[in-house]
Amino acid sequence: CGPKDGACPSGYCCSQYGYCGKDEDYCGTGCQSEFGKCEVSSDNGKDYTPSSSKPASSFAYYYNCKNKMDWALTFDDGPYKYDEDLLDYLKERGVKATFFINGDNVMDIKSSRGKKIVQRMYNEGHIIASHTWKHVDISEVSTDELIYNMTELEKYIEMYTGKKPAFMRPPYGAGHDNEKVGKVLKDLGYSAAVMWNVDTLDWDKSGNVDYALSVFKKYQKKGKGILSLNHCYYKDITKERLIKLTGAEIDYMLSQGYKPVTMDKCLGLKPYQE
């Protein structure tokens, strides 16, 4: 596996030496996440019984913060190996973010490292929300698959934090016009599907700062609270690109008088199910 040989089969890790496997030798230090999974599962959750969910009293799709000078910084697709560096930086800047995480995407949430990152996000005051278990297009999967992708992830979030999320973000932004999807999410206890109004396109522009800030500046003119989309992972992400773009966004938004807020304050809703 690797740049010349391509990706490993589903569920396998690509070692630093270019071989596919499933144990620590393949999934640990040097694992190439672009060509397979990384991190060994340490907790299968079989002995954990999640709390029951009550249908949410309301459900809607949201695209901006309710207060025009609020800014919600969000990150999709974690946990990932640079999240610890990102958390260090956010702590240094005194900014709280909202993380829309997966369970089985670029890092196995059941791994010791995945668990550690999720718990740290929560313990340091960030909001944790759902981005589905496998990063699926929720408008294309069956109802059973949708329910599995939501409940499997929330089981581990609740195991690690004691909280079950009330917010989710549809991968690819899909399903916002699908009544069936909305009904399922509401019945599962979700009050908000969170979209965005500023897309940095970090995944497509390799974290280009100038492009991202141009989108912020353009949307500012509309006079609405800003809800921006960033990613913990994309194909050519580096720690430096992640921190540089995050820092540039924080510097710019603070200079414009915006207040960084977590998603509960952005929307005026409770972030976790009761």
From TrEMBL:
| Top-level taxon in the UniProt lineage | Eukaryota
PANTHER family in alphabetical order: CHITIN DEACETYLASE, CHITIN DEACETYLASE-RELATED
Task: Provide the NodB homology domain boundaries.
Answer: 69-261
Keywords per UniProt: Carbohydrate metabolism, Chitin-binding, Disulfide bond, Hydrolase, Metal-binding, Signal
Name the chain's protein.
Answer: Glycoside hydrolase/deacetylase
What are the recorded Gene Ontology BP terms?
carbohydrate metabolic process
Q: Which CDD domains match?
A: ChtBD1 (cd00035)
**Upper lineage:** Eukaryota, Fungi, Fungi incertae sedis, Chytridiomycota, Chytridiomycota incertae sedis
Molecular function terms in GO for this entry? Answer: chitin binding; hydrolase activity, acting on carbon-nitrogen (but not peptide) bonds; metal ion binding
| Disulfide-bond pairs as recorded | 8-20, 13-27
Specify the Chitin-binding type-1 domain's residue ranges.
Answer: 1-40
Q: State the species of origin.
A: Neocallimastix californiae
Q: Where is the signal peptide?
A: none
* Cofactors required: Co(2+)
Q: Which Pfam families match?
A: Chitin_bind_1 (PF00187), Polysacc_deac_1 (PF01522)
